[in-house]
Amino acid sequence: MNGPEHYREAERDIEHANRADGDHGMYFLARAQVHATLALAAATASRPSALYTSEYRQATAAAWVEVAG
């Protein structure tokens, strides 16, 4: 799963948490937090670097723009 996919999953889990109650809501909030943290780690790791080709950077940037706007 890549960063944008983790971001989308966090958003879905938050939506589920808003519709759930009790332990189910807490479960989805915990999942959302994990996915949001992984999305942040992926975004941080994918910042421009000499290690990445320009095609990789462009594809990664496009994926982030698509998911996060």
> What Rg is obtained from the alpha carbons, in whole angstroms?
14 Å
- Helix amount, in percent? over 70%
Apparent shape: elongated
Alpha-carbon distance between the termini? 19 Å
Number of strands: 0
Domain unit count = 1
Structural class: mainly alpha
Task: Provide mean pLDDT, rounded.
Answer: 86
Poorly predicted runs of 5 or more residues: none
Number of helices: 3
For the biggest sheet, the summary is: none
Question: Could you please describe the fold and organization of this structure?
Answer:
This protein has 69 residues and is mainly alpha-helical. It has one domain. The chain has three helices and no strands. The protein has helices spanning 3-19, 22-45, 54-68. Helix 1 (3-19) runs antiparallel to helix 2 and helix 1 runs parallel beside helix 3 (54-68). It is elongated, with a radius of gyration of 14 Å. The two termini are 19 Å apart.
